[in-house]
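Input structure tokens:
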């Protein structure tokens, strides 16, 4: 039996981007992986920045955190050079407050992948044929916890107007599309630990079926918080 027509359309990966516990950037992550470095840290004596809670009493205190930097990279210097992540290197000031950390990571990794691929669509047709497929299993549970605490203490007055957009899983893909003007398929996947793989698979099918010629695809997560750790421990 002849294969389906769409199966004949070849799909290739042309650019890569990464924000991981081993560092920001594909080269940094890959070199540290080959060097047998670990991204795991202990949460003992760590205070969660968003909620002010500690991890005391939680049986597992092992987590993989993205290494952070407090200042922007110097002008003209690759922000992924030292492997540390600073949101201002990747997201415009003011825009960062509209997003949660998993969206920040998606924006950074997408920027790297688009630059690596050398893809800079200049026509309406090219933008219409470029889509985004980025998923997340949980997103940022600490955003829910933080807003719940603020609502309990001060009511609606303290609730950010961005609370819902910061929680929606599909907004990682949405923000990437808006930043670059991509007008093709905008899709989000949420299938727990297989989310990234499914996002790449779905993106491949968008291209195979002719819905797009280029897709930015992957997964992003930022769910290490006392509540999330306690939930997984239980």
């Amino acid at each position: 039996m002849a294969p389906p027509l769409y199966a004949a359309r070849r799909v290739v990966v042309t650019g890569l981007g990464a924000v991981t516990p081993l560092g920001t950037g594909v080269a940094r992550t890959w070199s540290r992986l080959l060097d047998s470095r670990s991204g795991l840290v202990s949460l003992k004596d760590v205070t969660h920045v968003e909620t002010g809670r500690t991890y005391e009493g939680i049986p597992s205190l092992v987590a993989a955190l993205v290494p952070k930097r407090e200042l922007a990279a110097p002008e003209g210097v690759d922000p992924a050079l030292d492997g540390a992540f600073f949101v201002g290197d990747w997201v415009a000031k003011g825009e960062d407050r509209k997003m949660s950390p998993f969206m920040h990571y998606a924006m950074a990794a997408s920027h790297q992948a688009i630059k690596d691929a050398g893809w800079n669509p200049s026509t309406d047709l090219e933008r219409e044929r470029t889509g985004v497929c980025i998923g997340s299993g949980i997103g940022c549970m600490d955003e829910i916890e933080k807003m719940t605490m603020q609502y309990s203490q001060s009511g609606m007055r303290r609730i950010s107007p961005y609370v819902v957009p910061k929680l929606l899983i599909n907004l990682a893909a949405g923000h990437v599309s808006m930043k670059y003007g991509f007008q093709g398929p905008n899709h989000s996947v949420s299938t727990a630990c297989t989310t990234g793989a499914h996002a790449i698979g779905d993106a491949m099918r968008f291209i195979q079926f002719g819905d797009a010629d280029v897709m930015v695809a992957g997964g992003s997560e930022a769910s290490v918080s006392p509540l999330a750790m306690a939930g997984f421990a239980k």
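The radius of gyration is 19 Å. The longest helix spans residues 101-117.
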